[in-house]
Amino acid sequence: MTRCDILAPLLVPKLGVGMRHPEREVTEQKGGFFAVAIVLLSLLLIGTITGLIVWRLNANAPEPEVGEPATNRIGVYVESAFRTEGNAEITVFGEVRPRVQIDVVSEVSGRIIEVSPHFIEGGSFRSGEALITVEDRDYALAVSEAKARVAGRQLELEQSLADADVAKRQLANEENPSDLALKKPQIIQARSALEASELALERALSDLSRTQISVPFDARVTATAVDEGQYVSIGRTVASVFSTDKAEVRLPLSNADIAALGVPIGYEAEDDLGLSVELVADVGGAPRRWAGRLVRLDASLDSRTRSTFGTVEVQSPFDVVEGEMPMAPGLFVAAQIQGRALTDVIAIPGAGLRAGGRVFIMNDQDLLEVRNVVVAHATAEVAYLTSGIAEGDRVIISPIRNPVPGMALSPIEDAADPVQLSAG
Questions:
Q1: pLDDT by residue (tens digit) across 277-296?
Q2: Do residues 394 and 364 touch, judged by C-beta distance below 8 A?
């Protein structure tokens, strides 16, 4: 056995396990290249198909419109200005007070023997109606005595005249008889005594009439201080009353208010024909209205406030129909006064008038314009202008934050409030 024959079994297993055949390796390499080629071809085919689809979609898509870039516009509410005529109207506030409010004082002394059923707080009575009757026996006696004295003095005068007539006939032939001889001083004395007695009678009658305590106007009682059976003396307050024929309202008026009314300081209306006034107050859970007239203005200004006061009169404030309310003293009312006439003015909503006499306008290009205007009269609801804008101008009535002339705007058509943060 040769040496090769011995080593051959040892070499063959090694070659079969640890080594690769060249033919097999070549075959495996060809198979890998083929798989890679297939993947690449697949990807290429997918990309080609996708590109064709995208190209087709783009070809069929509509061409984009070419225009100006969009502008952000602020939504605002606008109202058209219009030409009108009317009256300047102001609203001021004041408290109702009676034309007359007094304390009723007894002018005689005595015991109260009768009181009127209306002599109570809130009671009403007519002019001359007796509220209290004081015992009049002593005063009736004084009247009788005064009448007797008048009769006596009348008799004395008649006697003096008769004596003078006799003396005149007796002294007819004498030259320059004295007045005393003719009884002239006696006649003068008798006449003076008669006049004095007649005045005493008038005073006694006056005292007698004063035993029935009354006032010379229609009134209502606010407070009573005495009652039946009580003794009163001269000067004693028996009640407090106020008149009901007229009510007054004192209204503070500023310089601008006086200008709107068109009347001077110290104004006095003639024949109760003052400026028309409507007075409004909430009474009994509902608004109540009364008609009055501005009849006068004070003739001076308050040195602290530089304002004056006007007086409004309301006739018969307690004469109301059923269901209505009287204008009682103490009510706090709003007075709407019709002032001077306004002719050929431009009216805009009050919200359209800005601080400093400015108005914001939306022009024909829907851009903001800021204009200075001349104000004839303005209230919270409406402003009347004499220049600065024209009829038909679109006035912006909603707030604008940081207004800048030329800013783009858009009118709001619906009823919702525009979202704005602050007024311009």
A1: 999 999 888 899 999 999 99
A2: no
**Quick one: residue 339, left, alpha or beta (phi over 0 = left, psi -120 to 50 = alpha)?**
beta
47-82 tens-digit pLDDT: 777 777 766 776 665 665 555 555 688 889 999 999
Is the pTM above the cut of 0.70?
no
Contact between residue 388 and residue 372 where contact means Cβ atoms under 8 Å apart: yes
Helix/strand/coil for 258: helix
| Side chain identity at residue 235, one-letter code | G
Please tell me the distance from the alpha carbon of residue 41 to that of residue 35, in angstroms, as a whole number.
Answer: 10
DSSP string, 395-423: EE-S--SS--TT-BEEE--SSSPP--SS-
Contact by Cβ (8 Å): 346, 81: yes
Four-point Cα dihedral 134, 135, 140, 141, nearest 10: -140
Extract the runs of DSSP E, i.e. beta strands, from 53-211.
74-76, 78-80, 82-98, 101-105, 110-115, 124-125, 132-134
36 burial type by CB count under 10 A (0-12 exposed, 13-18 middle, 19+ buried): exposed
d(CA 186, CA 163): 9
Closest CA to 78 of 421, 392, 406, 419: 392
